[in-house]
Design goal:
single chain, 188 residues, alpha+beta, 6-stranded mixed sheet, 3-stranded antiparallel sheet, 11 strands, 23% helix, globular, disordered N terminus
Length: 188
Amino acid sequence: MVLTNSTAKISLDEFLQLPETKPASEYINGQVYQKPMPQGEHSTLQGSLITAINQIAKPSKIGYAFPELRCTFGGAVIVPDVTVFEWSRIPLQPNGRITNRFEIPPDWIIEILSPDQSPSHVIRKITFSLNHGTKLGWFVDPDGEAVTVFQPNQTPEFKEGKDILPVLDVLSSWQLSVADLFSLLYFS
């Protein structure tokens, strides 16, 4: 994450009045951070995870994975690489159509470390989310081919190789090992 305003803190209302940026900007603890532009590994993992989760979750209406969804909660605005909501928690309009604004914490966030991105800021975002109701966070490190798993009130777990990654309870029929996750990066 690139800190776009390193000295002056602004309020959440001031942040929400700013124009949208590409890539997206986030707001945590009065600071504005712009996400880095996704590159090949990041985009491949993000797209593949969203597809895999939605192939399991959407038909049975147990959950849905979103790419780069802006979530406002706990006085912050975050845009995780992958955001997963259990179906019953997806914000809807009275007619059943999805809303544009998600003002609740996601159930699961997946962050994929990009080159030149601050690992500590990404971890801070995951722990902030957990402190506000998120049930699961993955910190995916493509260079190290490892995933650090965050869950409320637990020590983070380092997963690699054939380790099976935990998922939301509603998706417990789906299993993915760390090796299987990173095999998505190989095209030959």
